[in-house]
Design brief:
Blueprint lengths: L14 H15 L7 H26 L5 H10 L2 H11 L3 H21 L2
């Protein structure tokens, strides 16, 4: 098992790259990269959805209630750097919280796969 998953906080605009790198490394670590292509695509989609859902839930826990609609508008704009900037301004230590959540997700998935 490899512990070289990147846990450094994402810089503005690098969050998508961090998530893609996390998913790719975890996918390989679990041996899913050796699956047939069709199964691999399905597993990749499930992993990406799980990670995305966990991060969104985490952010909603810490985001002040009155800021959710504002975040939705920024997300709809499609500019990742603005999303990152907004989150940094409204959630103290957001990068560390996301990195910790990613590591928790990783540990949970590895434990599930190992335990069947």
């Amino acid at each position: 098992m490899s512990d070289d998953i990147q846990t450094a906080p994402p810089e503005a605009g690098n969050a998508d790259m961090l998530m893609a790198e996390f998913n790719t490394r975890l996918f390989a670590e679990l041996g899913f990269d050796k699956m047939p292509a069709e199964e691999q695509k399905s597993a990749e989609e499930k992993l990406a959805k799980l990670v995305n859902d966990r991060i969104i839930n985490l952010l909603l826990i810490y985001l002040p209630e009155g800021k959710v609609a504002e975040l939705d508008k920024i997300i709809e704009g499609g500019d990742q750097s603005k999303v990152t900037e907004f989150l940094s301004a409204n959630i103290s230590g957001v990068e560390e919280k996301i990195a910790n959540e990613l590591m928790e997700v990783r540990s949970e998935i590895i434990a599930k796969v190992k335990n069947g």
